Amino acid sequence: MLAAKGPPGSGSAPEDRMALAGSGEATIDLSYWRGPHGPRPLLALRGASPPSADAVSEAVGRLAAMGLDRVFTEALDEEAALPFLQAGFSVAEELVVLKRSVGRFSRVPRERPAKPPARIVSVDQNRYPEISDLDRRAFPEFWSLAPEGIEDAVRATRSAVVLVAEGMAPAREPHRPLEGPLLGYAILGIEGRTAYLQRLGVDPRWQRRGLGRALATSVIRLARKSTASMLWVNTPTTNLGALAFYRSLGFAPLGRPLLVLHMDLVSGSGLGDGS
């Protein structure tokens, strides 16, 4: 499985969030990760400073009063995670952050033919339901996205492009369709000088055949034509296959991992297994 989940502010678009606690440069918002089984509460930070422990406790109290039984945070660096850990949150997942240059003189990975043959095209929201179906197959159910979640990922940055890999019948067999028209997809987000590989997934039936590389290479080419100079991605520390894949594309890991935290609001403690 290829995993690309980013940027760290993923979840509902800012205009769809509700302020829970804090103020100014350290606000805690209620956001949502919109999966196929309904929205899941997600705490997102707004501002340049980490919130206080008191603000975290206030946010947790408000969520409990709303009748919610569990909550997760967006991916946080260690400084931002500290007040949440002090308030009783625990680590659900660690994400490695990687980046590569997409500046004018950066290199594009060498093309390799995908098997089966596929064409990479950009699509609009009309394909989001189909993309969501693929996303559920490509990612663990807990982190898969509903069509609304796909839209959230697209809206997370100032501009974005959704690419899909569509199956193509071999020239000698033009009337023989593949098992499904959509084999994989990727979302590229652009925010000024920074680009994000928001999501990259390939149908498990067609993995390890060059489709992920073809999609990622197309993302890199588009990022090089944008205003961005650097392309970022993150993936779980346990996904060694994805880490090797991104390294092969010229990405390099950075510093300490980001932390996704969680809390059981009923017992007031972190959940044991993240489910």
Could you explain how this protein is built, in words?
It is a single chain. This protein has 275 residues and is an alpha+beta fold. It has two domains: 14-94 and 258-264, Gcn5-related N-acetyltransferase (GNAT) (Aminopeptidase), CATH 3.40.630; 99-256, 3-Layer(aba) Sandwich (Aminopeptidase), CATH 3.40.630. Helices cover 24% and strands 35% of the residues. An eleven-stranded mixed sheet has the order 1-2-3-4-11-5-10-9-8-7-6, sandwiched between helices. Helix 1 (53-65) links the parallel strand 3 (38-46) and strand 4 (70-73). Helix 1 crosses helix 2 (78-86) and helix 3 (128-138) packs across helix 4. It starts with 17 loop residues before the first strand and ends in an 11-residue tail after the last strand. The relative contact order is 0.22.
Poorly predicted segments: 1-9, 271-275
First and last CA, distance: 19 Å
Instruction: Give the CATH H-level superfamily of the largest domain.
Output: Gcn5-related N-acetyltransferase (GNAT)
Helical content stands at 10-25%
Secondary structure tally, helices: 6
Note the main sheet. Answer: 11 strands, mixed
Structurally, the number of domains stands at 2
Summarize the structure in short:
The chain is α+β, with helices and mostly antiparallel strands. Helices cover 24% and strands 35% of the residues.
